[in-house]
DNA sequence: AAAACCTTGACACGGCCGTGGTAAGGTCAC
DNA sequence: GTGACCTTACCACGGCCGTGTCAAGGTTTT
């Protein structure tokens, strides 16, 4: 069975080794460990890392966003509270709303892209 | 019918006027506007602002988190993609995971509280 | 018409995020 | 047993978040 070490995994997924550790810390992709503590990425993890990358760029979301979604999914108390708040009266002027928070959420990415010189 | 102006609303909700504008920009609580453009907070908005505040402190989450939850709730494509990713193989070592991301998500707040001298 | 309040826009600032790099020290392969 | 690779821990840095404050200009009230 082939399990890639962190640098190999980095090469095949496009993440940097540094980011792989960061992603693990965020609780999103945690590879098995060897007896000595080496990270061992199996096929499942590699796939997960690739799809994670697509997910982030396709929807312009961040690791923190996914981490929060994870928390939402696993903490039903939190989910109920948040969904409940959102479901309550949806704040009067609905049009302004949609327009505004959309810009709010997108702005950072536009700035990032601009800064990245894309 | 009584509708409070931004400073009055700030007083009764505990938010600062600046934050009220920020919360609106984040698309979370958007008050009606007078003909001249003055924000007019009704009972519903005031209640919403108070519960929002409780929500944030009770679960140690941020405005951005709620904004993202809102996006998740209103963009089914996004929700399906994220939930799908999370639902897929839940990353091997489940224990490390839970432990780790929990710390990851909580650390910032601990630091915030510490910094705030609480 | 002046005082008091509102609006948007901008500057500021500490702190965290995403990222890279490096150091000190274990592990693996040959 | 030496070189290549891994691990954790820490410093650095640009950019955004949450927040305050101030300026320039309308509105409301008296």
List keywords for this structure.
homodimer; 118 residues; mainly alpha; Multidrug-efflux Transporter Regulator, Chain: A, Domain 2; two-stranded antiparallel sheet; 6 helices; 68% helix; 3% strand; DNA-binding
Characterise this structure.
Two copies of one chain form a homodimer. Chain A is mainly alpha-helical. Chain A has a domain at 6-87: Multidrug-efflux Transporter Regulator, Chain: A, Domain 2 (Orthogonal Bundle), CATH 1.10.1660.10. Helices cover 68% and strands 3% of the residues of chain A. The first copy, chain A, is built from six helices and two strands; from the N terminus they run ααββαααα. Chain A has helices spanning 6-13, 17-25, 43-59, 63-74, 76-87, 94-115; strands spanning 32-33, 39-40. Chain A has a two-stranded antiparallel ribbon with strand order 1-2. The longest helix of chain A has 22 residues, at 94-115. The first copy, chain A, is elongated, with a radius of gyration of 18 Å. The mean pLDDT of chain A is 83. Chains A and B meet through strand 1, helix 3, helix 4, helix 5 and helix 6 of A and strand 1, helix 3, helix 4, helix 5 and helix 6 of B.
Low-pLDDT parts of chain A are: none
CATH architecture call of the domain at 6-87 in chain A: Orthogonal Bundle
Report the span from N to C terminus of chain A: 40 Å
Question: What do the pLDDT scores of chain A average to?
Answer: 83
SS-derived structural category of chain A: mainly alpha
Question: What's the CATH topology name of the domain at 6-87 in chain A?
Answer: Multidrug-efflux Transporter Regulator, Chain: A, Domain 2
The order of strands across the largest sheet of chain A is 1-2
Helix content of chain A: 55-70%
Largest sheet of chain A, in brief, is: 2 strands, antiparallel
